[in-house]
Design brief:
Layout lengths: L2 H23 L12 H9 L3 E5 L3 E5 L3 H10 L2 H17 L5 H22 L10 H30 L3 H5 L4 H24 L8 H36 L3 H16 L4 E4 L8 E5 L7 E5 L10 H20 L32
Antiparallel strand pairs: 1-2, 3-5, 4-5
C-alpha cells in the first residue's frame, strides 16, 4: 500500500481519536446505559449496507447504521452522543473483514462524519426533538453526514490514485444514494417520536429495522448477481466473435474487471497474485498463467460468487483459445515445476509480457 494511502488512513483515524478523546475529557456525565444498546445494533447494521451501482466499476454504499446516529443525536447532548456513536461505529468497522488500514480509515471517517451530523442535531432543543423542527434537523444531519463521508473518501482516493476529483464525484447514482440515506435516517427520527410517547414501544421498531436490513442485503445481492450474469453473457458473445487470441485476452481483462467492479485485471504468473482474486488460465489443460483481479480500493473482499463467475469467464476463454489451437508447447513446464519465467504459447500475443 502506498505511503500516502497509509498516511491518509491513519491520519483520519487519528483525527477521530482526537475528537473522541476531547468529548470524553469534557463529558459532564457518561452516556446513559440505554445509549449503549445502540452498539450491537450499529454492528449488525454495518454488516448489511445498501450497495448501489455508480458508473461502470464503482459502488455507492449506503450504511443503515446512521439512523441510530439520529436517535442518539436527538436524545442526548452532543458529547454524550458522539462518545456513544464513536465507540459503536469504531467497534463495527474495526471488527470488519478488511485490511487494517482500511478499517482505520472507515472508522475514522464515520466518526468525523458523525460529529458533523450530531452538530446539526444539537441545534434542536431536546424538548422539540419529536417536532417538525427535529425532522428537519434529522434531514440536515443525514445530508451533512453523507457529504462528509462521501467527499472525504473521494478526496482520499483522488490523492492516492492521482485522479481528478470530478471523475470520482460525478456519480450517476449519487442522488439515489442520498435519497436512500435520508430515508434510512428518518427511522431514527421515528424512534425519537415513539420514545417521547411510549418508551416500551421503541422495541417494536426492531421489526421494521430488521426487515430493512434484510431487504437491503437481498437487494444488493440480487443486483450483484444480475450484473455478473449480464456482463458474463456479453463477454461470452464477444469472445466467440474474437478472431485472434490477443482479442480474447483483452476481452477477458476488460470484462472481468467490469463484472466484479474491480479497479483492474492483469495476466500474471500464478505466484504473482497477491491480494484480490486469481483464476488459473489453462487452455488445453496446461497452465499458461493466471488472471489476477486487483484488490478493491475500498478493501472489500471478493466473495465465492465472484470467484465462480470469474471461473466461468475464464472457462469460456479457455475453450475458445483451444479452438485456436492455443496450448503450451510440448516442452513447456508443467505447473508444479514451472520456473518463474512464463511458458510460451504458440498463438498467444501476450504470453511473455508482464502487466
Amino acid at each position: 500500500m502506498p505511503a500516502l494511502s497509509r498516511l491518509i488512513d491513519r491520519g483520519t483515524a487519528g483525527l477521530s481519536a482526537v475528537l473522541l478523546l476531547g468529548a470524553l475529557v469534557t463529558l459532564e456525565a457518561p452516556p446513559p446505559w440505554l445509549a449503549w444498546l445502540a452498539l450491537p445494533l450499529v454492528v449488525v447494521a454495518s454488516r448489511a449496507p445498501l450497495v448501489l451501482p455508480a458508473g461502470s466499476r464503482d459502488n455507492l454504499v449506503v450504511g443503515l447504521d446512521s439512523s441510530l446516529l439520529v436517535l442518539l443525536g436527538l436524545s442526548l447532548p452532543w458529547r454524550q452522543a458522539l462518545v456513544g456513536w464513536g465507540v459503536s461505529i469504531s467497534t463495527a468497522e474495526l471488527t470488519n473483514k478488511r485490511g487494517w488500514d482500511t478499517r482505520l480509515f472507515n472508522a475514522g471517517v464515520c466518526v468525523v462524519a458523525g460529529a458533523a451530523g450530531l452538530a446539526v442535531l444539537d441545534t434542536v432543543p431536546k424538548a422539540a426533538a419529536a417536532s417538525p423542527r427535529g425532522l428537519l434537523a434529522a434531514v440536515g444531519a443525514a445530508v451533512a453526514y453523507f457529504a462528509v463521508d462521501y467527499l472525504w473518501s473521494a478526496v482520499s482516493i483522488a490523492a492516492v490514485e492521482r485522479t481528478p476529483l470530478r471523475e470520482l464525484t460525478d456519480a450517476r447514482g449519487l442522488p439515489l444514494a442520498l435519497a436512500c440515506f435520508v430515508g434510512v435516517d428518518s427511522l431514527g427520527f421515528l424512534a425519537v417520536v415513539v420514545l417521547h410517547q411510549q418508551l416500551w414501544a421503541v422495541a417494536l421498531l426492531v421489526l421494521p429495522f430488521t426487515a430493512l436490513l434484510w431487504a437491503a442485503r437481498s437487494w444488493s445481492n440480487v443486483g450483484a448477481a444480475e450484473r455478473r450474469g449480464s456482463v458474463l453473457s456479453a463477454a461470452s458473445l464477444a469472445i466467440q466473435k474474437a478472431d485472434e487470441p490477443a482479442q480474447v485476452e483483452q476481452i477477458v481483462l476488460e470484462q472481468a474487471a467490469l463484472m466484479l467492479r474491480a479497479p483492474g485485471a492483469r495476466w500474471a504468473a500464478s505466484a504473482d497474485g497477491v491480494g484480490g482474486l486469481t483464476a488459473p488460465f489453462a487452455p488445453g489443460g496446461r497452465l499458461l498463467r493466471s488472471l489476477h483481479i486487483l484488490p478493491r480500493g475500498s478493501g472489500g473482499r471478493y466473495g465465492e460468487r465472484d470467484a465462480d463467475a470469474l471461473r466461468m469467464l475464464v472457462s469460456v476463454a479457455e475453450q475458445h483459445m483451444t479452438a485456436f489451437g492455443c496450448s503450451p508447447s510440448s516442452d513447456a513446464p508443467r505447473p508444479r515445476t514451472r520456473s518463474p519465467a512464463w511458458p510460451t504459447a504458440p498463438c498467444s500475443a501476450t504470453s511473455s509480457r508482464r502487466h
